[in-house]
Amino acid sequence: xxxxxxxxxxxxxxxxxxxxxxxxxxxxxxxxxxxxxxxxxxxxxxxxxxxxxxxxxxxxxxxxxxxxxxxxxxxxxxxxxxxxxxxxxxxxxxxxxxxxxxxxxxxxxxxxxxxxxxxxxxxxxxxxxxxxxxxxxxxxxxxxxxxxxxxxxxxxxxxxxxxxxxxxxxxxxxxxxxxxxxxxxxxxxxxxxxxxxxxxxxxxxxxxxxxxxxxxxxxxxxxxxxxxxxxxxxxxxxxxxxxxxxxxxxxxxxxxxxxxxxxxxxxxxxxxxxxxxxxxxxxxxxxx
Length: 288
Hints:
This protein has 288 residues and is an all-alpha fold. It has eleven helices and two strands, in the order ααααββααααααα. The chain has one domain (2-111, 122-274). The protein has a two-stranded antiparallel ribbon.
């Protein structure tokens, strides 16, 4: 039972890391605190649900469609935030909070409050001799999360574009003085973040029930894991997702499902109070 709990926590935590990946990248480069992040993921899930149930597309074909469309949506969001004046961080938070409310009501009108789910028809795979069951959905969560994290990590660490993005994350003004086109970096961050939102949507629709107000939970998860990892850090997002997945799985097993959000909220408060810069942030060097 403990090994089964670990596998469930690992797959759930991998999905949490994927949810946080686009949020962390956009926030790190642009300092835009996107409170509509979860609503966009839910909307991507609704799109995948419609493609499967009304156009009868295979599940895997929904990924490129959702990724392309939400790349476009993210670029439109970038154009919207260009009109936001200073202080940008605070005002972007207000604008995206309003956008989240608009998206919730649009989804409520379009899809009603009924719960929807993309069902997986595959049978669990039993790992003998332990009789541990792993579903196809869990395997997809792990594979897609690891693959997306690895690709973004390679982009940031092994390419010239990634160096420019990391410089923008560290200090926008210094990057601008060094000749980096910060506006182009912001555009690229929104585009990549939007594609990651489109990737997470179909998986969300197969993992959790879709409903118009489910985005707030996804946004909360993205904030917790991004704070855990530190701004602009990619690999630690996986560790944060796995830790949160394990904490939630243990909470559900010991206390029940009603305590899951309460324990997650306590974890967020503890991170903000004790380590607001993230667990994996490097301490500042003392001046000599």
